[in-house]
Structure formats: C-alpha cells, structure tokens
Amino acid sequence: MRRAPWEGGASKHRERQDVSGDRTSEATGRGQSSVLAVALLIGFVVLGMLSVALVGSVTLDRAEDNAQNQRVELAFVEFSQSVTSVAFGQGTTERVAFDIRANDAAVRHDETGSIRVYTDEALIANRTIGSVEYTREDDTLAYQAGGVWRGTGADATMVSPPPFDYDDGSLNAWIPIVTGERTLTSSAIDLRRNGSGVALDRQSVVQGQLVTVEIQSKYYGGWADYLRQQTSDASITVDHANETVVMRLGEPAIDSTFSQGVFATSGDIQFDGGNSEIDGNVSAAGNVSDHSRVTGNVTEGATNDLRIIDDVIEKKVRDAENDSTTPIMHPEYGGAFLSGGATYYDDDGFVLESGEDLTVDLSAGNVTMIVDGNISLQGGDIEVVNGGGSRAFRIYSTGNFGMGNSEAGVDGESQYFQVYGTSEMQIAITGGSKADLYGTIYAPRNEAVLEDSEPNAAAEPFGTGSKCEGWDTCVVAGNSEVSGAIIAGPTIVGQSTDIEYDQDLVDIQPSLQLDHGLYPPPITYLHLSVYDITVSQAGSNSSIAAPPAAVSPVAAEPLARAA
To answer: Which segments constitute the DUF7305 domain (predicted)?
Structure first.
C-alpha cells in the first residue's frame, strides 16, 4: 500500500526533530562541563594562592625569627667581647649597645651557678657566677663566665668560648663574673670593673698535683662539651642531677723513690720488745719510739707529699671488670703460673695456703695483677723468677695484705716484687715462726685507718691480732725478715723482727703503669684570675641587688707549691 506523501514527510520531520533534540542535550552537557571546569580551576587557583600566602607567612615568620635569633646572638657575642675588654683591658668602664629588641633579658646573680677550683693541697677559688640570659618561647641565649651559651641543661651548646684554655700542661682561666640589674632593655649598657680589677689572681706550679675545676651551671651541657675539647674525655665527668661539670687535670704520678726503709705517712713507728731493728732511714708523721733501733736517719713530724692512689687502683679494677680480654686468675686454686708481659685480674682476692704457690715469670716483661679484695699468704709462697732491668711483678689491691709462714719476692732483689694499696690497706707480716718479704709496699695515707685497740684485719687469720691492735702496719713475727721498703700508716715492729732497707731501691720509682689515654692529661702550671664586672642600663644609678660570694678564706692562702 502506498503511503500518502504527507505521511512520509511527517516521519522525516520527526526524525529531524529527534536529532536536533539530541544535539541540543549534548551542547547543554558540554556547557555545564565547561562551567564546572572553570569553577574547579578558579578553586585551585584560590587554593594555591592561599597555600602560597600561608607558606609565605610561615617563611616570613621563620625568617623574622632567624633574624631575631641572629641579632640576639650577635648582641651577646659583642657583649661578651666588651666584658672581656673591661675585665682584662686598661680601662675600667665601657658602654655597649645591647640590641635585643625585647624586654626579657636579665642579670641573675644568685643561684645560677658556681665555680670551685682546688688542688690536693688547697682550695683556690669558690665563687658564685651570674649570667645574662635572654629567653623567647623555647629559645634561651646566655652569657656566663666569659662564654655565650644557647639552650639549657644537657642540651646547651657553646656559641662563643669562655676564656678557659688548656695547652701542653698549662691551664689559664680568666673568669669574668657579672652582677647588677636584674632586667636589661634594648639600649646601651654600662660595664664597670669593680675595685682594682682582679678579685683573685693565682699563678702556681702544680706539678704532681690533681687540679679539679667544678662548674655548676644551668648551661652545663655546653660547658662539658667545651672542656672536653680543651682536654680529653678522661678529664670530664658530668653530674646531671646537680647540673655540674667536673674537670680534673693531672695525670696520676708518684714523684718520689723508695728512699727509706719505713715511712709512716700518718701516725707513729713503735718498737715492741727487744732485738727488733730497722736498718735504714725512717720517717713518721708522728713519733719514732726508740731511735737507737734505727741505723739510719730518723725524721719525726714528716710531711706526707706522696700521692695517695685510691683513685688509680679503683679505676684499674673498673677497667679490668669491663675488659673481656683481661684473663681472670684465682691463684688459690694452686699451681698458678703468670707469664711476663700480661695483666691478670682477681675479682675477689686470694688466699695461698701451704702447697698453693704462685710462680711469676718476668722473662717476657712486667707482670701485673689487679686484685679486688684481700691478699693473704697463709703458708703459700709467691716466687718471682727471671727478673732483670726494670721488670717487676706488681700487684694493685683494693684490700689488705697479710702473710705468715710464707715467702714472697726474690731474696736480695726486692725491686722485682711490688705491692700497691689504697689509703685503707691494712698490712700484717706475722704469724708462725717465719715470714719473709723481699719487696716493697706502697700504700700512703693522710689518716690512720685503725683506732686504738681496733683489730688489724690482715693479722686475724694468723692468731696474732692482739699484737697488731690499733696499728695499720704490723710486722711482729719472730725471726721474720723484711727486705725492701714499706710506705703505709702507723707501724709497729715486734720482737726479734728486722726490717732492712734494700739500697738497690734508691733509684726505683713507684710505678702506676698507666694507660695515658684513660687518665686526665698532666698539668704543671695553673693561672687563675677572677674579675667582678657590674652591668647596668646606661645612665642608671641603681645599686647592685646582691654582691657575689666572697673569696673563701682558704682561697686567700697561697698554695704550698706556689711558684
């Protein structure tokens, strides 16, 4: 059937309308997408601008903070230089700009720190030290005793060094101490050196002494790092709880020889009963009971200038405990043999009974034994063989030394057997019919260990304790022979007992056998100066709120070994 012409046209017209409608929808969709894209683009641009603004703001703040920190740091360094100029220079006053741009710096002249300097013989200085401190949020910058420090506590660091200089055995310390107004503003500051300038000036030869510097400071971490750089790790100890740095200088040394038979560095030397004698020179901090029993010179009221070695022995024990390569030796197990060139460690002391002898061979060099405890020869012997030259068997003990019915060392060669003890070592050569010691004992002290009638612990195993009561050193066994030298505390020499000084010891110096890297460096010369500097705002006439602590009366006394 044919369609009417108008029927086909209408159909085509509808198709064209449908196509036109689809195209309109597509165009509308594309238009909406374009709008969304533009909106997103604008959003991204705005977000980017905000981010840039935020980052820029943070960067600007950070730059301003850095600029402020640098400005304050420079102001403190210049302030330090000006204080040094006033302290050490010809003039007594100086005005300095203090560009901190903040009203939060203060002079603190109480409870901010202290410094103590002393030797074995005297207190040199004991002073409080003030500081000028700037704080801003978590940042702290401070001037103290010639140095500039950033931060506090263990985290403090040095910005500018204090005038503490150690070089080749000499310590030069110039300490400016600031006092004055508590609050300083950003303006000019007046510095004034008080009095004649130097509040304390000491120049001393301190060779053979231990020099100790204690600095208690809010900025102790920075002090510790700086002083380590100047000296060594072995010189510095830190007490975090008390914010204190301790610097020790003076390698332990014994500036003497075994030059006499007996030296009681504290107390008396007493002869008890007949037929006892000391063949050689003797010295006592106290009295010698019977000079006729001494064949050499007698010195009473002697001054002890020998080095006490407690710290050396304690350190040797600690090092041996922590060194897994040091062989542990227990001679009491019998048949012990020690070879030359080695160091051995006994962690609880030893007893040698009959048949439990110890043989030491020096053919390959020195033999060293570190003993954390007592040594007691109860019938067992110590035999030293193949000695020669400066080789020796040396024992360093934290405890006591006793022997009875035993023999130790080499007859006629006492330099080959040497015992070193602390200032609390008790010594007993007693018990049985005979006890022969061919060697030296070095255990000086400034005070007696035992009170009157107090038992000597080293003598108790031998049943002769009553003869030794109250005496740090007891040589009372009949027919015993001691050849060598004894340096210790109050000494009693019993009936039928001889102590013979070995003349071969006259040039023998006690040896501490130190590993130099493990001990503080030596010191020969000490120069310490302290200066008082008043800090005030320019034009201010305000008085000082609190003066610094006065120099200790002890510090005003010259050193016994002053140059």
So the answer is: 300-507
